[in-house]
Amino acid sequence: MAAGNAVDPFWMLYSIHLNPHVLNILEKYRIGNLDPKDNNDVVSDMSDPFANEPTRHPLLKPASEKPFNAEAPEYILVENFLTPNDIFYVRNHLPVPDIQVDTYALEVEIEGKSKILTLSLDDLKKFPKHSVTSTVMCAGNRRSEMHKVKPVKGLNWGAAALGNATWTGASLREVLEAAGLSENEIDKYQHIQFEAYDTDTTGSPYGASIPIWKGVDRRGDVILAYEMNGETLPRDHGFPVRAVVPGVVGARNVKWLAKIIVASEESQSHWQQKDYKGFSPSTDWDTVDYSKSPSIQELPVTSAICQPMNNATVDVKDGKITAKGYAWSGGGQEIVRVDVSCDGGKTWHVAKFDFHDANKSPQHWSWTLWSCDLPVPKGTNKMEIIVKAVDSSYNTQPELFENIWNLRGVLNNAYHRIKVNLK
Ligand SMILES: Nc1nc2c(c(=O)[nH]1)N[C@H]1C(S)=C(S)[C@@H](COP(=O)(O)O)O[C@H]1N2
Ligand SMILES: [Mo]
Known about the structure:
By secondary structure, this protein is of the alpha+beta class. It has nine helices and 22 strands. 13% of the residues lie in helices and 29% in strands. The mean pLDDT is 95.
């Protein structure tokens, strides 16, 4: 991105890459050193692209500060079926754009048509108001567990890079209709692309796309949301408007939405083409060919134990302890069972569902919060607890990370395992 210019603005935007490993790679391309006086000219031209970030809740533990990426401690997730906005994980690739409501515009383009529909926030609010309760999860959720098997590249997420919220706004389907997309034309197109207001140093925006059926089917429930849990959409979550694509990986739930394009091609953005794809455990950075794997859309079934947390000390009461956690599957598949074991899988205890909404698959968009009493044999002072969930397609989780390892550390859905000390 520096392409002949100073590399400093790049470092300011992508400080996560300013590390010894990358500096080492760059060292062999060094052609000389700037006179310190010229160097000052370059640096004084720059303002911090992160100077205008929102304030964040202290419980959000940053995996990276600039851009801001953070999750809450796992234990708090299971306290509420709807994750409170201020502790909902934040995944930003770039600085949070500063968008003024009165100048905000959302463009809707249908390839091959000359007319582009431009909507203000007020225009969008004139569409019938729809609400959908949906879990949003990052493809990198639980990456730190895969990383332990063999290092992967990416933010070191724990098991809390997801949240469940009620999203309110206009229906994408109805907005596309207003933009002139008629039923008999749908087959001409394959994808719905989203472009955002956050941009990199070259001015190119964050973007992603979803298959067209997801956006035009009444049962897809894709929302152009301006509210989150009954409040104005917070800046970190896409103010004033984001796409909420239920059942689909976080990366396609584009925040700070600037443009929607109904197209014959997928989004050509870095995040659609060169990231968020799965590969074989034997594919490495020398052999990977991103054009060979499909982009992640619907996420596979997963679950995690949130209480107790890993390495906690737990009081045994009446010969048992209670574990609590979440389970969720992509594509609107409902969780039908959660199995918990504390003897390495010899015995499985079926968890009770504490929160499980009534929607049937394939429109079951929310997570299930579960709890399970586990017997503790007398004299046990350490225990491993493992969990796996089953969804309404009877798909379940792989046992080990070894067999699903992939270089980017996505789709981390092996059995979740924690160790606890008992007293
Ligand atoms: N414009 C924009 N949209 C975005 C992103 C982004 O960096 N920019 N990050 C994506 C990713 S990878 C995820 S996991 C979710 C995170 O949503 P949240 O921050 O509201 O939890 O937003 C997605 N939408
Ligand atoms: Mo993500």
